[in-house]
Amino acid sequence: MEQIANVPPSAPTNPAQRTYLRRETVVSAAINAVLSAVFTLLAFGGEMSIGWRALAFDALPQSFAIALMGSLVPALLARRAIGAGRLPGGGRHLATGAIVQAALRNALLAAVIGTALWAAALVVAGVETIAFDIVMAVKIAYGAVLGAIVTRMVLTRLLSAPADPARRA
Question: pLDDT tens digits for 41-63?
Answer without folding.
Answer: 999 988 999 999 999 999 999 99
